[in-house]
Predict the 3D structure of the following.
Amino acid sequence: MKSIGILGVGQAGGNIAEIAATMGFQAALINTNQRDGAVNTRVEKKYFVPGYSGAGQDRTIGLKAVNENYREIVEFVQRSFKNIRLLLVAFSTDGGTGSGMSPLLIDLLLDQLPGVHIGAIAIVPERNVLAGNRINAAECLEEISKIDSLSSVFLVDNDQMRRANPQSSKHQIYLSSNRQVMEAINHVLQVTKKSSFYGNFDETDLMNILSTRGVTVIASTAITDAKTTSDVTSKIQQSWLNSIFCPVESTGVIRAGLVYEGPEAMAKLIHVPSVFERVGEPLELFEGTYITETDPTVTTILAGLSFPARRLKALEESIEKNRDRLQGLVNKEHTQKYESRIQWASNLKVKQQRKPESVTSKLSKYQK
């Protein structure tokens, strides 16, 4: 039984939970729309908030669903996960259900699951999404960033996938992002089961890293064609920029992991101080070296990073630039009206009602 559980909230979160279930993770989902969750057939444990049929990209509806049903939701989560050390709540930041429910739900679960660390897998939308989605994402990420005692936040960046695959459909981008984030988490978890004469990276090491508050990045790179220490360092640092997560923008790693898998000769080219020169020396570094005959790869985990201000600012820029226009649209929704110039013509369609006359009146009209 894996020690990490995946709780999907909303449609995007449910799809991540579906992939997690196929990899052997304990998985469950919560949704306000039963039809969305019905397609996630590999997830056995599901909770559909009663009285709702979706949130329609309205975060307030997701928030309301938690407020009205938090006892039942918390009990569902408590029943769904056993003997885990870390629960990752997965959701999209730009929708209604996942974005609206998840910040409050995470905050509640921090006190309701003793001994379990709570983290997040938060999907950041592409830069070309519409204004409403950008507003949702900005509000959601601000709320997530302010939660005390929250463990690792994985910011899955759909923009990264779009750059790498510009011709892909939205469905392909989403599916690839969801699969890659779970593959990255699953890989480091599998490493903790290996043994080595040269230094093990065990589950306690991994949990020490992933329990760190802040943004976390997992990246792997092949170093097959590296010739020098500088080559290896460059490839590792480039992997942070090319991963599916928001690119690392600043220094300040708190805890980190470095796992090498491959021939012994290539391991000698790894120079730890050089690797972390760009992001700063971490407070704690946990290493694992596994000598194999496979192609040499280095996997790094950076935890405790700040939220990527430049990436998130890019989401907000178009909102700021179009402030007057967007506010005008909202005002127009409540004030717009049309006044007809042919109101006088309404009487043309009104049939004249015949007024009954008395017999006396009719007789008098014919008197000569």
Summary: The longest strand covers residues 214-222.
